[in-house]
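Please, structure for the following, as tokens.
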Amino acid sequence: MDRIVSSEFIRPTGYAQARTRCTAFDRLISFTAPTLTFCYAQRLDPARLRAALSDVLRAYPLVCGKLVSEGGALFIEHGVAGAPFEVCESSQPVRELAETAARDRKAAKRILPSLPGRAGRLRSLIAVRVTEGPDGSLVSLTLNHGVGDLMTMLLIMRAWSAAYRGEPIEPTSALSDRAAYLEQHMPQLDARGSQFVAGWAEWPRHMARFLARGADPLYLRFTWEQLAALQAEASREHNVTQQDALMAHVFGLVRGAHRPELPGVLMLSLNYRSRLGMPPNTLGNFFDGLKTRVERTDDLAAVAAAVRRQVAGFPLRRPYSQELERLHASHPSFLQRMRCVDGDLDPREVGTLLTMTTHKNAGLYDITFDDARPVLYGCRPAESINWLTLTMETPDDSGLLVQLHVPDAVARTVAQEHAAQQARAKTSARSASSESVAQSS
């Protein structure tokens, strides 16, 4: 049985009062709150975790502030809210608990923290839960997406682990006006951006089929050898990266299971801090959806090459402009479910729209409390939104794991095809090995 050992609300002290003006996109995603979970194979000290978290909130008051609408703009008032901090005990081994929660959204609700309050009236923008089991600890962090992205959450986790070890907390950069910064540093939208306005009142109805609530996630595992084979197959005409090939392959699996007779769109989420010359430790949402249109006849190599061209030639643009404000004014409930919309995308003409993001090379397994290194990492969207993938390293560094959120019927077909492809690859490898042995004999 799980039980709550302690529950308190930590309020920061001694912080500098400030506010941050958000972007239209911050408002768009402020209705969601993703959760990161790190599993450690030893029990951590809850009292030290609580003290370290208090230090982090004082150093990063932005993350424990409050959302305030004023004059049509959205602001974060730093530090005025605080963070709920719960410690729970479970008789179940924590790794088993984490793996169950990763696959079962009902189990996830039992161990993952949720933000207190309701949409529009949240009492806190951050929540933390520590679950102690017989074999270790789970550390879970939930953050309102309007505050920041994955990089922001990892900055919080790294600061927390540093404070736990008694080390200094790394300073961060928090812009006072994110919207003004992007207005100044990002180029204007090109002519295609105006197409967003055309027919925008009809978008909620047409986008609903893409963004419906999803089922439990599906996990596809790829070894480094399999990834190298995918890259080799995808690079027969153009040089592509392993990540390009993997995204193209997963997109092909999904598209083959869902309306393959129509063109599709692969939407890659890119962090653009470095492209703007921003410090990598800047708190906020600084990513954009990079769209690659996939035609019906495109194979793995064609899709991977198209992704590589898009990434290599990615032009910085201002993606969050007045059109989003107009859409928010007319359809606020729709914006609660919408994610990564691109200006020249007409959902009526697209069969599969898949948003793909990667946590690879994010240093997930370097977040250590004392000498405890994570043995498992998990990320859950706040809501089970369909047509979303997350890529991360496996805990044993044997390859990559793709977390896929699609409807049940699509997931079943994708899982069957993935298993069949892996079985064919093993058979082919055995045959090649047998032929090699025969020739050497």
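Residues 189-210, 334-344 have pLDDT under 50 and may be disordered. The chain has 13 helices and 17 strands.
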